[in-house]
Description:
Layout: E1 15-16, E2 23-24, H1 29-62, E3 66-80, H2 83-102, H3 110-120, E4 131-139, E5 144-152, E6 157-160, E7 167-182, H4 185-196, H5 199-208
Antiparallel strand pairs: 1-2, 3-7, 4-5, 5-7, 6-7
Helix pairs in contact: 2-3
Amino acid sequence: MKYRYPAEAVDGGVFDGGIFGGGIFADNDEAKAAFCRMKLEEQELLEEQAASAVAAAEKLRNLPHWANAFSDEMNLEEKNKELTVAVGALANTAVQAVKAYLGNFTGLLGLVDTLKTQVMHMAWSSNESIERKAAVDYDESTGHYAVLLIERQSSAKDVKVPFTGAKTYTAKLKVSFRRAQAKNDAARQICQALVDQAAGDLVQKIEAMEIF
């Protein structure tokens, strides 16, 4: 078979490719058919590549996009002869740290009040070894979002001070903090879903999430 592309008027005939925008000079119909198959395969490949590009763009659009992401974890400990004093000092330390973490996310400062309330109302005198609570705040107007997970790692213990007979209470708290700014609908949906989450399920949800 003979190919000549683009089409030229020569003896032997010219095949005008029509939708292919070209032509072929061939000795027989078999050559023309082969050329058509080749051009169709090229067209199908281009269509597949275009479809893949569209699918990739759609997938990217559906992924959550975040900005200003930050996370940290701290372990706090306070000791005092009075349990309430030790817990109060622990709460104040946690509050100051979270305020610093929030930075310019000022619309989420309500999270600080929630944190202090949660710390103060944990069962510090309980024999339970672990107690966890979670809190989340979301400013829909800015996309600013923050979550807290606090864990009372051990119950308050009475420790006798040598030679005095006095008792000292030790309060320990682990604080996990995450913040980010939702930049697209997928990220905003995650934020809103966690805000709507029941308090009992929120701890497990936050522990399992990998959003940023």
